Protein backbone atom coordinates (compact mmCIF):
# COMPACT_ATOMS: atom_id res chain seq x y z
CA UNK A 1 0.00 0.00 0.00
CA UNK A 2 1.53 3.28 -1.08
CA UNK A 3 1.33 6.50 0.89
CA UNK A 4 -1.52 7.97 -1.15
CA UNK A 5 -3.81 4.97 -0.63
CA UNK A 6 -2.93 4.85 3.05
CA UNK A 7 -3.76 8.53 3.50
CA UNK A 8 -7.10 8.03 1.77
CA UNK A 9 -7.94 5.06 4.00
CA UNK A 10 -6.91 6.95 7.13
CA UNK A 11 -9.00 9.93 6.01
CA UNK A 12 -12.05 7.74 5.49
CA UNK A 13 -11.56 6.09 8.87
CA UNK A 14 -11.19 9.48 10.57
CA UNK A 15 -14.29 10.81 8.79
CA UNK A 16 -16.24 7.74 9.87
CA UNK A 17 -15.14 8.10 13.47
CA UNK A 18 -15.99 11.81 13.45
CA UNK A 19 -19.43 11.13 11.98
CA UNK A 20 -20.09 8.41 14.56
CA UNK A 21 -19.00 10.66 17.42
CA UNK A 22 -21.11 13.50 16.06
CA UNK A 23 -24.14 11.22 15.81
CA UNK A 24 -23.61 9.97 19.35
CA UNK A 25 -23.26 13.53 20.67
CA UNK A 26 -26.39 14.73 18.85
CA UNK A 27 -28.34 11.72 20.07
CA UNK A 28 -27.20 12.32 23.65
CA UNK A 29 -28.14 16.00 23.52
CA UNK A 30 -31.51 15.22 21.93
CA UNK A 31 -32.27 12.59 24.58
CA UNK A 32 -31.25 14.95 27.38
CA UNK A 33 -33.47 17.69 25.96
CA UNK A 34 -36.36 15.23 25.67
CA UNK A 35 -35.92 14.01 29.27
CA UNK A 36 -35.97 17.57 30.56
CA UNK A 37 -39.12 18.27 28.59
CA UNK A 38 -40.74 15.09 29.87
CA UNK A 39 -39.79 15.95 33.45
CA UNK A 40 -41.24 19.46 33.18
CA UNK A 41 -44.55 18.24 31.78
CA UNK A 42 -44.65 15.12 33.94
CA UNK A 43 -44.89 12.96 30.82
CA UNK A 44 -42.40 10.07 30.70
CA UNK A 45 -42.55 7.62 27.81
CA UNK A 46 -46.03 6.11 27.32
CA UNK A 47 -47.47 8.13 30.21
CA UNK A 48 -51.18 8.88 30.31
CA UNK A 49 -52.40 12.47 30.40
CA UNK A 50 -55.73 14.24 30.62
CA UNK A 51 -56.91 17.07 28.39
CA UNK A 52 -59.97 18.81 29.86
CA UNK A 53 -62.06 20.60 27.25
CA UNK A 54 -64.25 23.54 28.16
CA UNK A 55 -67.45 24.66 26.43
CA UNK A 56 -68.29 27.78 24.49
CA UNK A 57 -70.45 29.89 26.85
CA UNK A 58 -71.86 31.84 23.90
CA UNK A 59 -73.86 28.85 22.63
CA UNK A 60 -76.69 26.90 24.20
CA UNK A 61 -75.50 23.60 22.65
CA UNK A 62 -72.37 21.84 23.88
CA UNK A 63 -69.61 23.25 21.69
CA UNK A 64 -65.96 24.30 21.85
CA UNK A 65 -64.80 27.69 20.62
CA UNK A 66 -62.49 27.48 17.61
CA UNK A 67 -59.63 29.20 19.45
CA UNK A 68 -59.93 26.63 22.22
CA UNK A 69 -59.77 23.91 19.56
CA UNK A 70 -56.50 25.44 18.33
CA UNK A 71 -55.23 25.45 21.94
CA UNK A 72 -56.09 21.76 22.30
CA UNK A 73 -54.25 20.94 19.08
CA UNK A 74 -51.10 22.69 20.28
CA UNK A 75 -51.24 20.85 23.60
CA UNK A 76 -51.77 17.54 21.80
CA UNK A 77 -48.61 18.18 19.79
CA UNK A 78 -46.63 18.83 23.00
CA UNK A 79 -47.92 15.61 24.53
CA UNK A 80 -47.07 13.62 21.41
CA UNK A 81 -43.53 15.06 21.34
CA UNK A 82 -43.03 13.67 24.85
CA UNK A 83 -44.06 10.19 23.70
CA UNK A 84 -47.13 10.20 25.94
CA UNK A 85 -50.82 9.44 25.42
CA UNK A 86 -53.78 11.74 25.94
CA UNK A 87 -57.39 11.24 26.95
CA UNK A 88 -59.76 14.08 26.06
CA UNK A 89 -62.69 14.67 28.41
CA UNK A 90 -65.28 17.44 28.66
CA UNK A 91 -65.27 19.79 31.61
CA UNK A 92 -68.39 18.20 33.14
CA UNK A 93 -67.13 14.61 32.80
CA UNK A 94 -63.74 14.85 34.55
CA UNK A 95 -64.71 13.21 37.84
CA UNK A 96 -61.32 12.32 39.29
CA UNK A 97 -58.62 13.73 41.48
CA UNK A 98 -55.36 15.27 40.39
CA UNK A 99 -51.76 14.19 40.74
CA UNK A 100 -52.01 10.73 39.22
CA UNK A 101 -51.83 11.94 35.62
CA UNK A 102 -50.64 15.16 34.07
CA UNK A 103 -53.65 17.33 33.33
CA UNK A 104 -54.11 20.23 30.94
CA UNK A 105 -57.21 22.26 31.79
CA UNK A 106 -58.34 24.88 29.29
CA UNK A 107 -60.85 27.68 29.83
CA UNK A 108 -61.92 30.12 32.53
CA UNK A 109 -64.34 29.33 35.36
CA UNK A 110 -67.26 30.61 33.32
CA UNK A 111 -66.86 27.79 30.79
CA UNK A 112 -65.06 25.05 32.72
CA UNK A 113 -66.30 23.51 35.97
CA UNK A 114 -63.04 21.67 36.38
CA UNK A 115 -61.22 25.02 36.39
CA UNK A 116 -63.54 26.22 39.15
CA UNK A 117 -62.56 23.22 41.29
CA UNK A 118 -58.83 23.66 40.66
CA UNK A 119 -58.90 27.37 41.45
CA UNK A 120 -60.83 26.81 44.68
CA UNK A 121 -58.37 24.12 45.78
CA UNK A 122 -55.06 25.59 44.65
CA UNK A 123 -55.53 29.29 43.79
CA UNK A 124 -57.49 30.82 46.68
CA UNK A 125 -56.09 34.27 45.93
CA UNK A 126 -57.68 34.50 42.47
CA UNK A 127 -61.21 35.62 41.64
CA UNK A 128 -62.69 35.89 38.16
CA UNK A 129 -65.78 37.95 37.41
CA UNK A 130 -68.09 35.60 35.50
CA UNK A 131 -71.09 37.95 35.46
CA UNK A 132 -72.64 37.65 31.96
CA UNK A 133 -73.99 41.20 32.09
CA UNK A 134 -71.92 43.83 30.25
CA UNK A 135 -69.85 46.08 32.45
CA UNK A 136 -66.30 47.31 33.03
CA UNK A 137 -65.51 44.43 35.39
CA UNK A 138 -66.87 41.63 33.20
CA UNK A 139 -64.22 38.91 32.98
CA UNK A 140 -61.86 40.87 35.25
CA UNK A 141 -59.20 39.06 37.29
CA UNK A 142 -58.64 39.89 40.95
CA UNK A 143 -55.31 38.51 42.10
CA UNK A 144 -54.55 39.42 45.67
CA UNK A 145 -55.21 43.13 45.95
CA UNK A 146 -54.85 43.86 42.20
CA UNK A 147 -57.60 44.04 39.61
CA UNK A 148 -57.00 43.33 35.91
CA UNK A 149 -59.76 44.45 33.55
CA UNK A 150 -59.85 43.51 29.91
CA UNK A 151 -60.46 45.63 26.86
CA UNK A 152 -61.69 43.05 24.30
CA UNK A 153 -59.43 42.83 21.28
CA UNK A 154 -56.93 45.31 22.73
CA UNK A 155 -55.73 44.21 26.17
CA UNK A 156 -56.68 40.83 27.61
CA UNK A 157 -55.22 38.66 30.35
CA UNK A 158 -54.69 34.95 30.90
CA UNK A 159 -53.26 32.89 33.75
CA UNK A 160 -50.77 30.17 32.93
CA UNK A 161 -50.10 27.88 35.87
CA UNK A 162 -48.18 24.71 36.63
CA UNK A 163 -49.36 23.31 39.95
CA UNK A 164 -48.54 20.22 41.95
CA UNK A 165 -50.31 18.80 44.99
CA UNK A 166 -48.14 17.34 47.73
CA UNK A 167 -44.44 16.66 47.82
CA UNK A 168 -44.34 13.17 46.27
CA UNK A 169 -41.79 12.90 43.48
CA UNK A 170 -44.18 10.92 41.27
CA UNK A 171 -46.99 13.48 41.59
CA UNK A 172 -48.02 14.73 38.16
CA UNK A 173 -48.61 18.45 37.55
CA UNK A 174 -51.78 20.25 36.53
CA UNK A 175 -51.44 22.94 33.86
CA UNK A 176 -54.11 25.65 33.85
CA UNK A 177 -54.90 27.98 30.95
CA UNK A 178 -57.43 30.41 32.40
CA UNK A 179 -58.13 33.29 30.03
CA UNK A 180 -60.59 36.13 29.81
CA UNK A 181 -61.46 35.08 26.26
CA UNK A 182 -60.95 31.94 24.17
CA UNK A 183 -58.16 33.53 22.12
CA UNK A 184 -56.18 34.15 25.30
CA UNK A 185 -56.32 30.43 26.12
CA UNK A 186 -54.64 29.71 22.80
CA UNK A 187 -52.13 32.47 23.47
CA UNK A 188 -51.18 30.80 26.78
CA UNK A 189 -50.71 27.37 25.20
CA UNK A 190 -48.55 28.90 22.48
CA UNK A 191 -46.52 30.77 25.09
CA UNK A 192 -45.95 27.52 26.97
CA UNK A 193 -44.90 25.69 23.79
CA UNK A 194 -42.39 28.40 22.96
CA UNK A 195 -40.99 28.98 26.44
CA UNK A 196 -41.16 25.64 28.26
CA UNK A 197 -37.37 25.23 28.25
CA UNK A 198 -36.85 28.62 29.90
CA UNK A 199 -39.63 27.93 32.40
CA UNK A 200 -38.13 24.52 33.21
CA UNK A 201 -34.73 26.12 33.91
CA UNK A 202 -36.31 28.73 36.17
CA UNK A 203 -38.92 26.68 38.07
CA UNK A 204 -37.77 23.09 37.65
CA UNK A 205 -40.54 20.78 38.81
CA UNK A 206 -42.08 23.38 41.12
CA UNK A 207 -45.33 25.31 40.89
CA UNK A 208 -45.75 28.69 39.26
CA UNK A 209 -48.56 31.03 38.26
CA UNK A 210 -47.87 33.57 35.52
CA UNK A 211 -50.08 36.47 34.47
CA UNK A 212 -49.80 37.08 30.72
CA UNK A 213 -51.16 39.95 28.67
CA UNK A 214 -52.36 39.40 25.10
CA UNK A 215 -51.80 42.56 23.11
CA UNK A 216 -54.10 43.68 20.27
CA UNK A 217 -55.54 40.25 19.52
CA UNK A 218 -57.92 41.76 16.97
CA UNK A 219 -54.89 42.48 14.78
CA UNK A 220 -52.24 39.98 15.90
CA UNK A 221 -54.34 37.06 17.12
CA UNK A 222 -52.68 34.99 19.90
CA UNK A 223 -49.09 35.76 18.85
CA UNK A 224 -48.20 38.91 20.82
CA UNK A 225 -48.00 37.94 24.48
CA UNK A 226 -46.24 39.77 27.30
CA UNK A 227 -45.37 38.48 30.75
CA UNK A 228 -46.97 40.83 33.26
CA UNK A 229 -45.81 39.21 36.49
CA UNK A 230 -45.12 36.04 38.40
CA UNK A 231 -48.18 36.00 40.68
CA UNK A 232 -47.53 32.64 42.34
CA UNK A 233 -47.45 34.00 45.90
CA UNK A 234 -50.61 36.15 45.84
CA UNK A 235 -52.50 33.56 43.77
CA UNK A 236 -51.78 30.81 46.29
CA UNK A 237 -52.48 32.98 49.34
CA UNK A 238 -55.99 33.70 50.64
CA UNK A 239 -57.49 36.94 49.43
CA UNK A 240 -56.99 39.80 51.88
CA UNK A 241 -60.08 40.51 53.93
CA UNK A 242 -62.07 43.50 52.77
CA UNK A 243 -61.83 46.40 55.21
CA UNK A 244 -64.87 46.78 57.42
CA UNK A 245 -66.86 49.94 56.82
CA UNK A 246 -66.12 52.60 59.37
CA UNK A 247 -68.81 53.18 61.98
CA UNK A 248 -70.67 56.45 61.46
CA UNK A 249 -69.47 59.18 63.74
CA UNK A 250 -71.89 60.41 66.35
CA UNK A 251 -73.19 63.85 65.53
CA UNK A 252 -72.67 66.50 68.18
CA UNK A 253 -75.80 68.10 69.48
CA UNK A 254 -75.88 71.82 69.08
CA UNK A 255 -77.40 74.03 71.76
CA UNK A 256 -78.85 77.31 70.68
CA UNK A 257 -79.01 80.06 73.22
CA UNK A 258 -82.45 81.58 73.54
UniProtKB/TrEMBL annotation:
Q: Which organism is it from?
A: Streptomyces werraensis
Provide the alphabetized UniProt keywords.
Membrane, Transmembrane, Transmembrane helix
Segments passing through the bilayer: 6-29
Start and end residues of each stretch annotated as Disordered: 235-258
Full protein name = Secreted protein
